[in-house]
Amino acid sequence: MLRMTDGSDPRSYATSRDGSGPAAEPDGLRFKPGICSGENLKPDGRLLTEANILEFLSKQQLDVRIERPRSDLIYLNVTGAGTEAPVRLRVAILKSSAEAGRELHEAILQHGPGSWGVHRSNLAVLGPIGSIGDDITFAAKTKLTCWGMFMAAGRDDTYSVPGGYREL
Questions:
Q1: DSSP β-ladder status, 87-93 and 73-79
Q2: pLDDT truncated to tens, each residue of the chain (168 aa)?
Q3: What's the DSSP call for residue 83?
Q4: Collapsing DSSP states into helix, strand and coil, what is residue 124?
Q5: Cα–Cα distance measured from residue 59 to residue 141, given in angstroms and rounded to the nearest whole number
Q6: Alpha helix positions (H), the chain
Q7: What distance in Å separates the CA atoms of residue 121 and residue 166, rounded to the nearest whole number?
Q8: Alpha-carbon span 92 to 89, nearest angstrom
Q9: What is the pLDDT, as a whole number, of residue 102?
Q10: In 89-131, which residue ranges form alpha helices assigned H by DSSP?
C-alpha cells in the first residue's frame, strides 16, 4: 500500500471543485497550476520503451530498481519520494496510446478504490493502492503527473485528473 510518510499535504498539490483538498473521490480533483512548470506537456506520439520512464524518473533524482518478468512487462521499485517503503510501479508496454489508456483503465477498475496510474503514448504505469491524497501527492512529488496522464479509481469508474500531462 502506498503511504506518504514525509508529512506532505495533498492540498499542496491538488484541489477539488470547491477549493478544498483531495477528498475520498478523485472526481472533481485538479492538480494545481504550476505543478508541471518546466516540464514538456506536449502529447508524445512516439512508441516508447521503459527507457523513457526510467530517464524521466532519474531526472527527478529518484532511485529505481528494475524487475522484468516478461518482455512487455516491467516493475520499477522507486525510492526517494517520501514514502515509508519503495513504491512498485507496473509498466506495461503496448502497441498504441489507445491500448495503453484502455489497459490502465481496466487495471485500475480491477484493483478497485485507491488504484491509480499514468499513461503516456503506448506505456501504461499502474501504481500501488493508496488513499487519493497519497496517490496525488506521490504523482505530484515524482512529477509522474507531468510525465503521463494521471487516472484514479472512483467508486465505479476511473477519472482523469487534469492539471498535468494529457493526451488528446
A1: antiparallel
A2: 899 999 999 989 998 877 776 766 788 899 999 999 999 899 988 999 999 999 999 999 999 999 999 888 899 999 999 998 999 999 999 999 999 999 999 999 999 999 999 999 999 999 999 999 999 999 999 999 999 999 999 888 899 999 999 986
A3: B
A4: strand
A5: 13
A6: 50-59, 97-111, 132-141, 144-147
A7: 10
A8: 10
A9: 96
A10: 97-111
Pairing of strands 73-79, 63-70: antiparallel
Three cell numbers, residue 153: 479509481
CB-side neighbour CA atoms (13 Å) of 37:
5
Point out which residues pair with 70 in neighbouring strands: 73
Reading the block at residue 82, the C-alpha cell is 517520501
Residue 148 near residue 124, CB atoms below 8 Å: no
Distance CA(152)–CA(129), nearest Å, equals 10
pLDDT at residue 126, rounded to an integer = 98
Helix or strand holding residue 75 (H, E)? strand 73-79
94 near 107, Cβ under 8 Å?
no
Q: Which amino acid type is present at position 53?
A: I
| pTM for this entry | 0.93
